Amino acid sequence: LYAMVAYHYSLKMSRLMIICGPIVSVLAGFPVGVVVDWCVDQWLNLVSRRPEDAAADDSPPRTGGMGSIWRTLWRVTGASICPAELRDLVAAKESFKSRLWFIDRPVRAVAAVGVIVALVKHSIPYAKEYIKHCDELAVHMSNPQLVFQTKLRNGETIIVDDYLRGYEWIRDNTPEDSRVMAWWDYGYQITGVARRTSIADGNTWNHEHIATLGRILTSPEKRCHNAMRHLADYVLVWAGGHGDDMGKSPHLARIGNSVFPDHCGDDDPLCHKFSFYQDGSPTPMMAKSFLYKAVNHGVKPGVTLNTKFWKEVHTTKYGLLRVYQVLNVSQESKDWIADPANRICDAPGSWYCVGQYPPALKGLIEKRRNFAQLEDFNKKGEKSAYTKHIEEIRGGGKKAQAGGGDEL
Fold first, then answer.
1. Which residue, among 228, 225, 236, has the nearest Cα to 309 in the 3D structure?
2. Distance separating alpha carbons of residues 48 and 28, to the nearest angstrom
3. Contact, 406 vs 284, CB < 8 A?
4. Phi and psi (nearest 5°) for 93?
5. Mean per-residue pLDDT for 235-264?
6. What pLDDT digit, counting tens, does each position of 56-98 carry?
7. CB of 186 within 8 A of CB of 258?
8. Is 159 helix (H, G, I), strand (E, B) or coil?
9. Beta strand pairing status for 157-160 and 148-151?
10. Cα 402 to chain centroid, rounded
11. Any bridge partners for residue 310, and if so which?
12. Relative to the CA of 202, which of 42, 86, 125, 337 has its CA 20 to 30 Å away?
């Protein structure tokens, strides 16, 4: 039952595959344990005394319960499962084991040694392959994401520390109460390295909040700034083409559209309006977005951010991280968010008290539609166009076509 439940939910989300670890280990180790246990038992029998003859049990069989069920099943199926020839062979083996135990035990011990030797010999290639795989994976996973080694076109090997230096710049050059907006992937880095408040991080389970962040970043400049000025003092983007925000941006827009149906529209649940053409040029919606202009500001011809809304304050050596100051930040909203009285506690006097969006964003938040995951069986209400689209795909239906959307 555990295995079936673990398998079912691991298919829902790749990270849930971890719940398969215990049961897979048990099921993989059980047959090995049975074989090793039998082998150890044969070696222990070498130093054990002679087996005593089992006393005859003349008591009548107990009626009722599982005993009666097994005896009935055995009378019906026993002959086909265990024919007379097999029963005679088992009886002869047991007789040999009892009468010639001084021969039987050494033979069994030798057989156990042979089984262990064969098992080890057969396992060595797989063990070496597994160790090699673990070593390679460890090397790959141990490389820090903020600092990496690469080669220039002239073959020179360099260490690129743009991300680290960018976060250090934020730490050293911004007020301590600064709030930094970025996609949630960088939330822990903003908190841990830059020592500043992030708007979202990897522990943000609220899909609606992540979608709100995605909508803001992929909106046109004016609409983006109308919301951002109430939430953040600075905004950072990853640029330079090395896994930058432009590669992720269609995903951000799609997540935003899953909660804000006016972003790309219900007729375009996968947000194809926000993407690249085959020649690499952006669609009109992407070209107007804050994220596209922030990543390519002053880099691509004709692409600049509106200087009434943002001010570029730092770009790292290789241009992989860019920081912009949000202009005309709403101090009223900032003070409202910081006021403990505006936090909602899960119980009176609790330490767990989450913040709320400032009243100035009420119009934006009211546009949100609760996002019911495909596995949220207990949620009722209308499903989003994205959820319906995924269900159609899983059910073999037609994929939704593309479609349009603009404001706060």
1. 225
2. 31
3. no
4. -65, -45
5. 91
6. 666 677 777 777 887 788 778 877 777 777 777 777 877 777 7
7. no
8. strand
9. antiparallel
10. 28
11. 326
12. 337
Rounded-to-integer distance, Cα 9 and Cα 21, Å = 13
Instruction: Please name which of 276, 199, 284 lies closest in space to residue 235, comparing C-alpha atoms.
Output: 199
What pLDDT, on a 0 to 100 scale, did the predictor assign at position 3? 86
Residue appearing with tokens 């903003």: 190
Angle at 235 between CA 232 and CA 239, to 5 degrees: 165
> Residue 343 is which amino acid?
R
Phi and psi at residue 304, to the nearest 5°: -145, 150
The residues, ordered by sequence, that sit 6+ positions from 301 with a Cβ below 8 Å of its Cβ are none
- Is there a contact between 210 and 177 (Cβ–Cβ < 8 Å)? no
* Burial 299-310, CB ≥16 within 10 A → b, else e: eeeeeebeeebb
The answer on pLDDT for 408 being more than 70 is no
DSSP classification of residue 18? G
Candidates 252, 295, 241; CA nearest to 274 is 252
Tokens encoding 158 = 């360099």
Distance CA 213, CA 364 (A): 12
